[in-house]
Amino acid sequence: MGLDIGLEKVGIEVLLASEIDAATRKTILLNKPNIGLIGDINKYTVSEIRKYANIPINKEIDLVIGGPPCQAFSTAGKREGFNDKRGNVFLTFIERILELHPKYAVIENVRGLLSAPLAHRPHTRRGFGYPPLTSEEDKGGALLHIIELLKNGGYGVSFNLYNAANFGSPQKRERVVIVCSRNGKVAPFLQPTHSENGEHGLSKWRTVKEVVRGLEEKDQEFVKFPEKRLKYYRLLGPGQYWKHLPSQLQKEALGASYYAGGGKTGFLRRLAWNKPSPTLVTNPAMPATDLSHPTKNRPLSVQEYMRIQEFPDTWKLFGNINDKYKQIGNAVPISLGAAIGKHILRLLSNQIVKERILNFSFSRYKNTSHHDFIKIRHKTRLQKALA
Predict the structure, then answer these.
(1) For the chain, what is the mean pLDDT?
(2) CB 199 within 8 A of CB 361
């Protein structure tokens, strides 16, 4: 939904949506009663898709855009990739792109896609006594397969990992955006409008305080933290998390998770007023990914979620409170959707799109673009050949 609103914000008419979640489908129709709406794309032919979009068979399509289910590639999940039925929807989406043959296609997905293998081998079958990983089992194998499918279909492919905060979103959400060009050219990167501290003459990142101001507490819907967590939240201020608790309480607060690896930055986490939000998740009260209000002893509300994702206050949501959190949490930040839309409009009008800022840090991670990906894959293959 965020992609659609972002595209429409810059003047792109969205003719068709594909959605399988029942509550989200009803939300779409509540807000856009005249849009074409289909379900599982595995069940629709190209001619049926054109029919629902009201696009004649002889009319060219400017853009196909979407974010196929990402759980199969998420760094927080099992990462079964294309072996997961949700991953197979990804392959169907690419097939539909090649069949519909639009001038441009855009695929949005999670950071985990950059490192997901094409074929998953369980960790219990790796290492001593087992053969080395094949190229399909290597990190990035799934993305390499996607690129090859698109290139074989005649499309030029570029991609990068983009932090939505660099495009005006009050949220540090990182998403892979793949731009596919039917003319075979490799499209330049999106153009940032914001930077953390106003570097490069850009606007500063937007903050939580900036976007949630004015919301009345009585009008908000939110789930509750259990009392055992509230005990610790009462000791934390804006921008703090479990490590800011008194040292004698830290182990007690985290329990067995205290001994787990990683930074555990999502535990007992209050948002800061003066920074963008972390990535919104589908439930703000899950222990490892808490999203607490900066000062109130509660999770972020549905209405605060909407403001952070930049949905208009007039947007109607169907379903219970968990459905609402899920719909907004799964959305693409509207500013990122608008940035993609502007980029495509420039390409469609044959404008020369130059990267105004060389070596801009689009993400907090390194080696995330198609340039880096190709270099690393070639290096890995060479090392295996020489081994």
Answers:
(1) 91
(2) no
